[in-house]
Amino acid sequence: MNWPLVSVLVPCFNHDLYIEECLLSILQQDYDNFELIVVNDGSTDLSAQKIEALRQVHGFQFYQQENMGVSAALNNALGHARGEFIITHDSDDVMLAGRIRRQVSYMQEHPEVGLLGAKVIYIDATGKPLKHKPVTDPQVQRWSFDELLADAYAVGAPVAMYRRTAIDKVGGYDPSIKVQDFQMTLRVAEAGYQVDILPDRVTLYRRHATNISKTAYKSQLIYDLKVIEAYKDNPAYEAGRLAIINKALKESVVADKKFARALFASVPVHRWNRLTWKRFRHFVFKYRKPKGAQ
């Protein structure tokens, strides 16, 4: 089998605690034909220094920019990328051995696939494995555009491999939408490419206090709603809007009840689904513990 060039893009913002482990996990892959491109998105911690120290040893590409968001950082990296396939790896996650080879093999066998995802193993900030659901379906899943929209499903950066022609066809990332995965998932699917999900676990996904889902759920809500605005005439639009609101409610029902109340009010009750009602129960009965409480 021919093993084409793969470009691994790593945008980084303030992940000095994790960036070394992240980059080393990529550099230690058993796939020889890849290039690593790292973009420091205006970090204010020691990320740039740690990346540069590794670059001097391993010789990968390293670029710096003012803080413009992950979508702009990925566009910057794409401008330097030469690979037939593109991986967009988060700078706080760990790539498991064999990941690139496994995904390239599948993409080579399925030329109709423009975006390939997989599963993850969750770890905490220290790298300790967290509980995760066993893989109950060992089959590859194929998602249609309507299904992706209705579920507001994004193939996340920790597992995504794109065909470069698919990214080019949709014009890269919209830098005004600073949450990257959802916009690219929908745009690639709308462009006619297949979106498949492998049952394999290919990445250690780190959950910590600065995950965007925990710290920036309000801005993520805004960006996700902006993404689906282009598909307002699609029958799956309302389901997708509700799925996005349910995501924002996951944190806000405890962290910001006033905000959560407004989100509940934005959807007629007859359109609530089982997950919305679950969020509502948490809104009524769950409260964040005061700092210092045991």
- Return the string of H and E elements: EHEHEHEEHEEHEHHEHHHHH
Q: What would CATH call the homologous superfamily of the largest domain?
A: Spore Coat Polysaccharide Biosynthesis Protein SpsA, Chain A
- Just give the CATH class of the largest domain: Alpha Beta
From the 3D structure, determine the CATH topology of the largest domain.
Answer: Spore Coat Polysaccharide Biosynthesis Protein SpsA, Chain A
- Report the major sheet: 9 strands, mixed
* Number of helices, counting only DSSP H or I runs of 4 residues or more: 12
Helix content: 40-55%
The rounded Rg comes to 19 Å
Helices and strands: which structural class? alpha/beta
Proper CATH architecture of the largest domain: Alpha-Beta Complex
Q: Give the strand tally.
A: 9
Query: Termini distance?
Result: 57 Å
Strand content: 15-25%
Summarize model confidence as the mean pLDDT: 93
What general form does the structure show? globular
State the low-pLDDT regions, or none. Answer: 290-294
Number of domains: 2
Keywords:
294 residues, alpha/beta, Spore Coat Polysaccharide Biosynthesis Protein SpsA, Chain A, 2 domains, 9 strands, 41% helix, 19% strand, disordered C terminus
Structure description:
With 294 residues, the chain is an alpha/beta fold. It has 2 domains: 6-206, Spore Coat Polysaccharide Biosynthesis Protein SpsA, Chain A (Alpha-Beta Complex), CATH 3.90.550; 212-285, no CATH class. 41% of the residues lie in helices and 19% in strands. Strands 1, 2, 3, 4, 5, 6, 7, 8 and 9 form a 9-stranded mixed sheet that branches. Helix 5 runs parallel beside helix 10, helix 9 packs antiparallel against helix 10 and helix 10 runs antiparallel to helix 11. The longest helix has 19 residues, at 237-255. It is globular. The protein starts with 5 loop residues before the first strand and ends in a 9-residue tail after the last helix. It comes from Pseudomonas abietaniphila. Keywords: Cell inner membrane, Cell membrane, Membrane, Transferase. GO terms for molecular function: transferase activity.
